[in-house]
Amino acid sequence: MSELYPLKFEPILKEKIWGGKSLAENFGKKQGNLKNIGESWEISAVSGNLSVVSNGFLSGNNIEEIIEVYMGDITGESVYEKFGYEFPLLIKLIEARDDLSVQVHPDDQLAKERHNAYGKTELWHILQSENGARIYTGFSLQVSRESYIDAINTGRIDELLNSEPAKPGDTFFTPAGRIHAIGAGIVLAEIQQTSDVTYRIYDWGRKDNEGRPRELHTDLALDAIDFAQTGTGKIINEAVINKPSALVSCEYFDTSIISFDTLIKRDYNLIDSFVVYLCTSGRFRIGWDSGSETVTRGETVLVPASITDVDLIPEPEASLLEIYITRNDLNNP
Questions:
Q1: Is 2 a domain residue?
Q2: Alpha-carbon dihedral of residues 252, 329, 117, 171, nearest 10 degrees?
């Protein structure tokens, strides 16, 4: 069997009425006939949206097919034992030219009961933002189920939302159950569980092209909301040059930011996991025993678990998100 290497994938582009041009103009996505790109699914194992390898001898194979062949050599033995052929994370770039709908995601237990799916815990890392751009995250104050229902019935749900200014480099963590929305004028990277289960709560009174309000999932959302989720959800992170700076470590993923202008050596021998790099600025090369691969702003690459030592070589400087899953994560209930 041929030796594995860092894998790139064809982005799966999603046209959205609230999307824009920045993912094409600033992050290298090929707009083609799409008017407004709202999302670029960088790595996906969601049914009907399987990422396809774009580089090397595995080019043309989808992510499920390569895991079926290489198993733990791709994902790590402990990850493969838990998830099988399904890659456990969905990595996206999102551009919002307008406020997105207010949503909540169920946790694993509720999602399994209702949809035979995983829940969705996610992280947002801001890449671009316009002046005044905001993230809506959690409630401004702890609310009761009854007061929430009253706000829904009277169209005042927006009055309960906590909002935070969003600037490039900010990170927001959204566990399942936390009410949230992306505000207008933001481009961000999203790291989440492999799940496409979303309950739409409120859509700012908008109507579609035919004058109809968008479908809401008010009843489904009610049991998914954690009413105790208040406050910022913002991760306080002190930027450090030339070494990883941890953002979030949770039961679903570990994420750090690495900004560097000199060679960085990374040793993954102890984690037993794939590693994903998402280049947020600049350009760098990944070097490993048998080769190297260039990664530029907006590109995402999957380093198989069988590659445990890599060099990150800036050209001449770069920043990236580093994402993986540890054994401790997998052992959490």
A1: no
A2: -10
Tell me which of 192, 212, 235 is where a domain ends.
235
- Which member of 134, 178, 200, 297 is catalytic? 200
**Structural domains in the chain (count):** 2
Q: Is the pTM of this model over 0.90?
A: yes
Alpha-carbon distance 154 to 308, whole Å?
A: 55
Tally Cβ neighbours within 10 Å of residue 123.
24
**CATH number of the domain that residue 264 is part of:** 2.60.120.10
Residue 1 lies in a domain: no
230 and 286 assigned to the same domain = no
Continuous segment of H or E residues that includes residue 328: helix 327-331
Whole-number Å distance between alpha carbons of 23 and 38: 8
* Dist CA 292 CA 310 (whole Å): 9
Instruction: Answer whether residue 329 shows pLDDT above 60.
Output: no
Rg over CA atoms, the chain: 20
Average pLDDT, the chain: 93
Whether 97 is catalytic: no
Backbone angles phi, psi at 74, to 5 degrees: -85, -55
Domain of residue 128 covers 7-235
